[in-house]
Design goal:
Elements lengths: L2 E12 L7 E8 L2 E6 L3 E8 L4 E2 L3 E6 L12 H4 L3 E6 L12 E2 L6 H7 L10 E2 H12 L8 H11 L4 E7 H9 L9 H17 L3 E5 L10 H9 L7 E5 L18 H15 L2 E2 L19
Helix pairs in contact: 5-6, 7-8
């Protein structure tokens, strides 16, 4: 009995990450690859891939694509590089949860400058109502979601062209709870509110949480706050994906301000996950070292 496929890709050089590169065909039924190698059968569509290479889509483990899905749902910048899955919501920033004050979308950079001219950095936060007024004027639509679940529904309705593994951003949660008054340690009440928002986001479909420990507002969180927030993930088998402290705060700092020791930032996030038992993926991990004497000894 002959196989029947929706799509049959013939004469491709197949690189599957397991076997050596080899010539063959790929049969696709529905949304699944159902046959690879020496494949024969009828198909609704046949693609001659002579001279072309076929391989699984790449996974981008550190993406900010969720900040542009609603503007660029075809995700051209990812797809044209062969990327079909993104782990997004990185560096402490995710589309939700939102409250009265939010980080304005970068797509409004010109409008924000006209609203509040600046020399180096724009206002980190604006009222949601102000952002939506600008959004309506420029794009004809507004940010009408407040939770991750509501955001998921919006992108499902509009459709995006890649797979999306979502993280909830601790920085976004911190802003939702503390608003503009984030340049300090959180209170116990505020910390409990953050933890509830993490529970909610995980139940709504997030696979973990990120932090941006060099960026506002996470740079002002002490380690005990981060440890308690990360501990929430354990119940869900979630992932902790930190942008670790490797420079210290990067805005509104005075000349001569000292830097964080990069090796200490790596040790910090490892210690958090040893204490909590939560899985760790250190975002854009780079070598750790001491920059201030006594320097890092040779290893």
């Amino acid at each position: 009995m002959m196989n029947e496929f929706d799509i049959l890709i013939e004469n491709a050089t197949i690189v599957d990450g397991i076997n050596k590169a080899h010539k063959g065909s790929i049969g696709i039924k529905g949304e699944r690859v159902s046959a690879v190698g020496k494949v024969s059968g009828d198909a609704k569509k046949v693609v001659d891939a002579t001279g072309l290479t076929a391989m699984p889509g790449f996974v981008d483990p550190h993406s900010h694509a969720d900040s542009s899905f609603l503007w660029y749902p075809n995700c051209e910048s990812a797809v044209m590089q062969g990327c079909t899955t993104v782990l997004a919501g990185q560096c402490g920033g995710s589309p939700a949860p939102l409250s009265e004050m939010i980080r304005p979308p970068r797509q409004l950079v010109d409008e924000i400058y006209e609203l509040k001219p600046y020399l180096y950095y724009p206002s980190p936060l604006l009222p949601l109502d102000t952002v939506n007024k600008l959004m309506k004027e420029k794009y004809g639509w507004t940010i009408d979601y407040q939770t991750m679940e509501e955001y998921f529904k919006v992108i499902e309705e509009r459709g995006i062209s890649i797979n999306y593994a979502p993280l909830v951003g601790h920085g976004t949660i911190r802003i939702a709870v503390m608003g503009e008054d984030y340049k300090r340690h959180s209170t116990k009440t505020e910390l409990n509110q953050m933890k509830e928002l993490i529970h909610q986001a995980m139940k709504e479909g997030c696979i973990g949480m990120s932090t941006g420990l060099d960026y506002d507002p996470d740079v002002f969180a002490d380690k005990s706050e981060i440890d308690e927030c990360v501990a929430v993930l354990k119940e869900y088998g979630g992932l902790y994906d930190p942008h670790w402290r490797r420079t210290g705060r990067r805005r509104e700092i005075k000349a001569g301000t000292g830097y964080i020791e990069p090796i200490d930032g790596i040790i910090e996030v490892i210690d958090t996950c040893r204490k909590t038992g939560v899985k760790l993926n250190i975002a854009h991990l780079a070598p750790g070292w001491h920059t201030i004497p006594p320097m890092t000894p040779e290893m």
